[in-house]
Write a structure and sequence with these properties.
328 residues, alpha/beta, seven-stranded parallel beta sheet, 40% helix
Length: 328
Amino acid sequence: MPDTILVVGGAGYIGSHMVKRLRRAGFHPVVADDLSSGHREAVLDAPLHVGDIGDCAFVDAVLGEVRPAAVMHFASFIQVGESVVDPARYYRNNVTATQALLDGMRAHGIDKFIFSSTAAIFGDPQYVPIDEAHPKVPINPYGRSKWFVEQMLEDYDHAYGLKSVCLRYFNAAGADPEGELGECHEPETHLVPLLLQVASGRRPHITVYGEDYATADGTCIRDYVHVEDLADAHLLALRQLLAGGASARYNLGNGNGYSVREVIEAVRRVTGHPIPVVMGARRAGDPPALVADSRAARAALGWQPRHAALEVIVAHAWAWEQRRAQGR
């Protein structure tokens, strides 16, 4: 029998791509998701258990039935602005519920955990590209919630032997190259899908928040990494743990930063749409540049992004957006 992997948050954007990647790699993925932001159809044909991982009884029942070899966690809330307005919601879901899941794993003797973390743990960068040694000084409740979990995982390893890999990625983007899955947040806050909604006619224009940053064209620079490449990294980390590997922390990105204006131009080239732009004021907490140093992941995991070109990322996301705009 193939190894069963429990994918928490597997009905969401990155989690659903992970489920498909696991199936393709010969694993048996099972999804647990409360569907608060995920979509039932995104799990494709994987078994789905609907419930809250903060519910100890639900966690106990799922783990007892599924008996996974490892657990992968994609169930965090991710909106920075919302975390500032309602931090209690973020600490409850991202920290408290994750601890309930970890304690359930301990009770069932499951000691391998892959955690979807974030570059937000670093706060305002002191240097770029950002490596794993960069100081962790998160500047919002979202980033702090993720950093709390990373520290909790270190303690659970030392005290209980629960092994984990935390993967800190920067700007996830793109979509399933086969067109079955893509990004579908409500509300949408990420640049690439927002631009593509303009191109498909679902949004009149894009707002650029700030054009006076200390960058070449005045707009923020970000490191975009294809969701398929993220899934590949998670798969490599999983195999490392299943082979008896130690706990580890890796940054994931392409190592190339693109400004907001450069992303807009890439979307114009791919879609042929003019993409009207409205200039807005800076948003609080937006650093000028976030670019990952992923050499550790490449060396330790053998990770090599397959879809690193920005126009490839945009093209895959555009194919998905066209399907959504046409109601398919």
